[in-house]
Design goal:
Layout lengths: L4 H16 L4 H6 L7 E8 L3 E2 L3 H11 L5 E4 L6 E2 L4 E8 H31 L6 E3 L9 H11 L12 E3 L1 H7 L2 H11 L7 E5 L2 H10 L3 E5 L3 H11 L4 E5 L4 H11 L3 E3 L2 H4 L6 E6 L1
Helix pairs in contact: 1-3, 1-4, 3-4, 4-5, 6-7, 7-8, 8-9
């Protein structure tokens, strides 16, 4: 998954504007135009993680320094690193480093936190056919970066937005008058389009209706393991299956082994993840 400059830079400009809208009054007091030396600094991981966001970190200083900086990475995107391991070396004017430090670290810490959670979750399913999916439960404005971090960590992306995939949820079913009616309406509207039809189900009766109506992906939402196991048997490879609803790392392997679902989706990968922890220090 590639993220282009025109997608990244508006996010960075917004973040910088949020943090240094009127400047850095502390740095401006300590330094001056005549006393703003070029400094070296290092970023160190304070605990083990999967690194994500190195390019974005660099882009922050490309903007802040007007491209007057040098950066060397000691690890690569997606690499698992240990606590106290050096991540990168940065050389720039002291004022520029202090202006961009928090914004750059915020991106790096948040995305590395997601990549780490994705890596841990994916690791729980190693050797099984079941794959981890993210959701649209993302921080407004950061979805592209968050889904990128999920991929870096080894997870897979569910639909990016409401126009990139069909997912019939419980409220759609209520509005349409039932599972059969909802799937029928979607098929009629998008006949000839290459959209897979996914539908959310909450009980075995809805699963049977979804299979009969021709759903291509059936989400098993908030079902117990025994119920999901019965649902997968009913579906019998007529559609892909996705387990969803309050998923935790501790549950993943048990659900995958006992039910045989194709996917497990986790909103917690993006909506409540613990950030990684990095420090940036001058090297004197």
């Amino acid at each position: 998954m590639q993220i282009l400059d025109f997608q990244i830079k508006p996010l960075i400009y917004n973040a910088l504007n949020e943090d240094i809208k009127w400047g850095d009054i502390t740095t401006d007091a300590v330094l001056s135009e005549k006393n703003n030396p070029v400094m070296n600094c290092e970023v160190i991981a304070k605990r083990a993680c999967t690194v994500c966001g190195l390019n974005i970190f660099s882009k922050v200083f490309e903007i802040v320094t007007k491209n007057d900086y040098a950066i060397d990475f000691y690890c690569s995107e997606g690499e698992k690193i240990d606590a106290m391991q050096k991540v990168l070396h940065l050389k720039a004017k002291a004022g520029d480093i202090l202006y961009g430090e928090r914004t750059a670290l915020n991106f790096l810490q948040h995305l590395s936190g997601i990549a780490t959670a994705s890596s841990i979750a994916s690791g729980e399913l190693r050797g099984l056919k079941t794959k981890i999916l993210d959701t649209r439960k993302t921080i407004p404005g950061l979805r592209l970066l968050q889904k990128y971090a999920v991929k870096i960590g080894g997870g897979e992306n569910h639909r990016f937005d409401l126009s990139s995939g069909i997912l019939i949820k419980d409220n759609h079913i209520k509005l349409a008058g039932g599972v059969k009616e909802a799937i029928g309406a979607v098929k009629k509207k998008y006949s000839g389009f290459n959209f897979k039809i996914e539908i959310e189900t909450s009980c075995l009766a809805e699963v049977r209706e979804a299979v009969t109506a021709g759903a291509e992906i059936i989400m098993l939402d908030n079902m117990k393991i025994d119920t999901m196991k019965k649902a997968v048997k009913i579906i019998n490879n007529a559609a892909l299956t996705e387990a969803s609803g309050n998923m935790t790392v501790e549950k993943l392997r048990d659900i995958a082994v006992k039910t045989g679902v194709d996917y497990i989706s986790m909103g917690s990968l993006t909506n409540s993840v613990m950030p990684a922890d990095f420090s940036l220090n001058f090297v004197l």
